[in-house]
Amino acid sequence: MSKWIPFILIGAFILVLFIMPLLFRSPVQTSTTVEIPSSEKVCEITIKVADADAPISLEEYVVGVVAAEMPANFHPEALKAQAIAARTYVLQTTNYGESEIEPTVARQVYYDQTVRQNNWQSAYLENEQKIREAVKNTEGEVIVYNDELITAMFHSMSNGMTESAKNYSGNDLPYLQPVASTDFQYATNYEVTKTFTINEWNERLGVNWTLKQVDQLKLTRNNTGRVDTVSLQNKVWTGREFRTLLDLRSTDFNIDVSGETIIVTTEGFGHGVGMSQYGADAMAKQGSTAHQILNHYYKNTKIEKKSCLWK
């Protein structure tokens, strides 16, 4: 046995050298959680919709806007374009969710799930899935110009040309310029007439005219064919003012007197600025993608997919 003692001592010495460092190591980390700085933890933007009970997640809000603003039977690429425009508009308008937004036509109409169910009835599941797919497939995508979110205005139906921001508001924006729009090819209610008696006409405009005077109205038009001014002697309205007073569908209108009736015929629907929704559907049916649609209506812009951190 004595001849094995040196080998035993050597083995014991090596074992001690191996074990000792382990005894003085810090405890093993059992958690795989990685702490993220608090400034990077909030990835989900919420939108404060006026009169809503609680803020709504951005993507859920976009679902409600697309459902309210565009017919669910439109082409999927048109729905995608609407989702990107709606997402861009709300982020730019509310400064990434810091301020609230009205769910009205003055901003963006929003329908919650209850309203969507009531509106769609038996088609709810089909329509809901279609719109959610459009939103999911464009998640995080926004429209930018010079690395800034654009004011992504949109309207229902143009008159063959979209309106410029300068004509509409006096504020010239390089990405909101007139472009051709062929939505009238598919729209069934492109041209609509509205009739007034002389009493209704005078009451709405606050005048006391005869039918002969109405027939003498002078209309001037801008470079997109929309009415710029309506005038008679010393009374002058802008096209926008006249549209509001008479509750017309657009500022592209003609006025005719027939017998005892005043007939106003409008073309298109909405202010005409930015993306035409019926035009987007027409382009999609002709093979355009959502990005191609947006690049057509918002000139010299780019589509970017934002990451978790929006700012």
From TrEMBL:
Single GO BP term: sporulation resulting in formation of a cellular spore
One Pfam family of this chain: SpoIID
Transmembrane segments: none
Sequence ranges assigned to domain Sporulation stage II protein D amidase enhancer LytB N-terminal in this UniProt record: 56-145
Any GO CC annotation of this UniProt entry: outer membrane-bounded periplasmic space
NCBIfam families linked: SpoIID_LytB, spore_II_D
Protein name according to UniProt: Stage II sporulation protein D
Species, as recorded: Ureibacillus manganicus DSM 26584
Lineage summary: Bacteria, Bacillati, Bacillota, Bacilli, Bacillales
